Amino acid sequence: MGAGQRIARHTAYKGPSIIKEIMYGLTLGLIAGGLWKMHHWNNQRRTKEFYDLLEKGDISVVVEDE
Questions:
Q1: CB 3.0-4.6 Å disulfide test: which of 4, 23, 58, 61 passes with 53?
Q2: CA 35 to CA 31: how far, in whole Å?
Q3: H or E segment to which residue 37 belongs
């Protein structure tokens, strides 16, 4: 195999596809954003449940004296 054939083989690789990289980044960003949003919705639900129970009187934040 000559030097010319080796060089020709190396020039066949064109590098990463910009469109693919953008799509991968967009997909990963949307997945991460969705998981973060679900985490916040869960915290919001738990906080609402806490204040609802507090308002009903089912729970208290004051420690009772013995």
A1: 58
A2: 6
A3: helix 18-56
Residues 6+ apart with CB under 8 A from 50: 59
13-42: pLDDT as tens digits: 677 899 999 999 999 999 999 999 999 999
Q: How far is 1 from 14, CA to CA, in rounded Å?
A: 22
| Confidence at residue 24, expressed as pLDDT on a 0 to 100 scale | 96
Contact present, 61 and 53 (Cβ < 8 Å): no
> Which DSSP category does 62 fall into?
S
Give the tokens for residue 46.
């738990």
